Amino acid sequence: ETQAFCKLSGIITEADTDWSIEALRPYVSHVLDVFGPDRIMWGSDWPVARLRDAYDTWFDKAQTLTAHLDAAARSRIFGGTARAFYGLET
Prior knowledge:
This protein is mainly alpha-helical. 50% of the residues lie in helices and 7% in strands.
């Protein structure tokens, strides 16, 4: 098992120009299975992601892609993992 962390970001800029949530779902699911919420941190990939979507809509879609997770897991992905990784937790 790896101790690596994964940033869930640039996925939309690597997808087709007409990407959809459903097209990304298997990839996000795989990342979740391999790394788990304690080693995944969401990133906007801004400003590069603007080639495919606006910041706020990409954030909303990332929320949708993780909506099946419990609140603790989502909290880790959307802030907690980054705080721990970068040593920002008090």
